[in-house]
Fold this sequence. Notes:
The structure is a single chain. By secondary structure, the chain is α/β, with parallel strands linked by helices. The chain folds into 2 domains: 2-269 and 474-493, 3-Layer(aba) Sandwich (Aldehyde Dehydrogenase, Chain A, domain 1); 274-464, Aldehyde Dehydrogenase, Chain A, domain 2 (3-Layer(aba) Sandwich). Helices cover 40% and strands 21% of the residues. The protein has 16 helices and 24 strands. The protein has helices spanning 7-16, 57-72, 81-97, 99-110, 114-135, 171-184, 199-210, 225-234, 247-259, 284-296, 313-327, 348-364, 397-400, 416-424, 439-448, 485-488, and strands at 23-25, 28-30, 37-41, 48-53, 142-143, 150-158, 161-165, 188-192, 218-220, 240-244, 264-268, 274-277, 308-312, 367-370, 374-375, 383-384, 387-390, 407-413, 428-429, 431-435, 453-456, 471-472, 475-476, 489-497. The strands form 7 sheets. It has a 7-stranded mixed beta sheet, with helices on both faces. Strands 9-8-7-10-11-23 form a 6-stranded mixed beta sheet, with helices on both faces. A 3-stranded antiparallel beta sheet has the order 5-6-24. Helix 3 (81-97) packs antiparallel against helix 5 (114-135), helix 4 crosses helix 5 (114-135) and helix 5 packs parallel to helix 6.
Amino acid sequence: xxxxxxxxxxxxxxxxxxxxxxxxxxxxxxxxxxxxxxxxxxxxxxxxxxxxxxxxxxxxxxxxxxxxxxxxxxxxxxxxxxxxxxxxxxxxxxxxxxxxxxxxxxxxxxxxxxxxxxxxxxxxxxxxxxxxxxxxxxxxxxxxxxxxxxxxxxxxxxxxxxxxxxxxxxxxxxxxxxxxxxxxxxxxxxxxxxxxxxxxxxxxxxxxxxxxxxxxxxxxxxxxxxxxxxxxxxxxxxxxxxxxxxxxxxxxxxxxxxxxxxxxxxxxxxxxxxxxxxxxxxxxxxxxxxxxxxxxxxxxxxxxxxxxxxxxxxxxxxxxxxxxxxxxxxxxxxxxxxxxxxxxxxxxxxxxxxxxxxxxxxxxxxxxxxxxxxxxxxxxxxxxxxxxxxxxxxxxxxxxxxxxxxxxxxxxxxxxxxxxxxxxxxxxxxxxxxxxxxxxxxxxxxxxxxxxxxxxxxxxxxxxxxxxxxxxxxxxxxxxxxxxxxxxxxxxxxxxxxx
Length: 499
């Protein structure tokens, strides 16, 4: 584990790291056709750690053609589910064996603490690959209850060529959540990683091929969203595009589908999740600790971040006292130090955006209780203090817009009914939570919250067996669980008339 590897040794390993920086197309690493590259800048210290192939439309065409050829000659989809399972299990094992390398790539690329990359991101990636590998030969078709003169079967078939466009906050995990079910179902895949964090996707593709995945089945095209992402969204030979990221870009993929071939779209987009603490909560210490972790873990760069803390007035002061006591444990530090609990924001542009929202909160009249400043400037990296605003009203921009950083808005309400109304008064509906020891209140609140995931006396609970996704402008479809296979498969009804 990371706490057994000292900071100096992580730095030495970072200096020696062999970074894959070319596109991975048809089983081979190659430059972009026009030779363009872009700087991959580490938010840890502002250094350029790689110059990555900048794929354009022609490169996307190459990748889609490779994926299509692999699908049509059935080199992967034609294998039995048990055979696909064997390859995916070998893939998972290789990821596990390269855990420290992948964790280091993740930390250098997007700034999260090495302890989190190694204890959270790599194991979650392995779990996703193994879970869908095991699911591959355990999903059955159906026989419809027709008349005796007819046999009608309902089977799942792979969608075909699918595009996967993943975000920068959990690059490995989000890639695995999408490619694992897509590959288990027999699809061929083209991945477009976020330009801020392309490195682990490239290494994963290489490991997948080492595990036995045929060439062309998994391709990776690094590049920029308005070029490479758009080309995938508009491509007429892509059967489905599955995106995690901002709601703004998610809406573009809906447009791309309508402008091209009506490809299937799956979206996991923004959130402004409300965490409700009511006076009927007996353990305010635990609730406050969860509220702090919900917004400051991963630097607040989480779609499910509990960025709105909705507190009943009668317990407001007690909750705030406990919450502020936890802020000290989330001060930004060197991501390569195993003791660090909060690292760097992903890049300079995003850092400026988060700080602009701090200015907005002040201008709107919210009370800044702690944080709000850039720190560790001498490192050259992108670090912002954990920030808490009190006296926030739900019509303020800091309460309505996704900041995607360590900025918490505290909203005071009088009752459980007002808490529910406040939580639901949002364009988003990804997650929500309620803290109460009254089972009647818990059931009533949980049923009325308009969110895809509702946590009761906990936050951000996670298991591969449970669907992940939201209501409203938080997206369409679900990641994780067997329900994710719905996105990557077509249902076919086959009729056989009997004599």
